């Protein structure tokens, strides 16, 4: 087996839902997105380049699955959202108008340069992707809600969307790759 540079009992696995590699401890039966403490980052970098990249496709950016993009978002839910609860609040009672005021304030903060979407998402987003700075990983057509997807695929890398409304709530989307 190739040397991953990971500490004992850790291995690299691949998340089919996020299409991203993650780290799994076979003894503790725990997983995480970030490499565990004690990882030899140089060895891991070489292992990932050899085993978890898509560089064999001509014309494709290394590591980017064909036909897929990567985006992050900040989600503000409201009481009409299809699931009006989140890791931040067990029951979300704000109105859609109140949610719009909140997300517009976040949009102004991001556009002013005072903070990035990735800076705000960990504390302000109602999506579980908050713990990854809003990063949703790679996704293709048909994997996200249509309104979200239609906007995400039109963004240039590094570009921030206007507010997007879906059944989940109100989103700001940033194209990462």
UniProtKB/TrEMBL annotation:
It catalyses: [protein]-peptidylproline (omega=180) = [protein]-peptidylproline (omega=0). Residues 4-38 form the WW domain. Keywords: Isomerase, Rotamase. It comes from the Eukaryota. GO terms for biological process: positive regulation of transcription initiation by RNA polymerase II. Its EC number is 5.2.1.8. GO terms for cellular component: cytosol; nucleus. It is an enzyme of class 5 (isomerase). It holds the Pfam family WW. InterPro entries: PPIase_dom_sf, PPIase_Pin1, PPIase_PpiC, WW_dom, WW_dom_sf. Residues 66-177 form the PpiC domain. The keyword Transcription does not apply. GO terms for molecular function: peptidyl-prolyl cis-trans isomerase activity. SUPFAM superfamilies: FKBP-like, WW domain. This is Peptidyl-prolyl cis-trans isomerase. It comes from Hypocrea virens (strain Gv29-8 / FGSC 10586) (Gliocladium virens). The lineage of its organism: Eukaryota, Fungi, Dikarya, Ascomycota, Pezizomycotina.
């Amino acid at each position: 087996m190739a040397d991953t540079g990971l500490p004992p009992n850790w291995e690299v696995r691949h998340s089919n839902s996020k299409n991203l590699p993650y780290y799994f401890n076979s003894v503790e039966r725990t997983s995480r997105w970030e490499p565990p403490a004690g990882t030899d980052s140089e060895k891991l970098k070489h292992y990932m380049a050899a085993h978890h990249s898509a560089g064999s496709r001509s014309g494709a950016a290394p590591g980017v699955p064909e036909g897929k993009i990567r985006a992050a978002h900040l989600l503000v839910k409201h009481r009409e959202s299809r699931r009006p609860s989140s890791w931040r609040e067990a029951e979300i009672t704000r109105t859609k108008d109140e949610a719009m005021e909140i997300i517009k304030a976040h949009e102004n903060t991001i556009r002013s340069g005072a903070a990035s979407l990735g800076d705000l998402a960990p504390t302000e987003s109602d999506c579980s992707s908050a713990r990854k700075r809003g990063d949703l990983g790679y996704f293709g057509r048909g994997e996200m809600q249509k309104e979200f997807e239609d906007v995400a695929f039109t963004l240039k890398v590094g570009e921030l969307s206007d507010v997007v409304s879906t059944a989940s709530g109100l989103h700001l989307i940033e194209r990462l790759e």
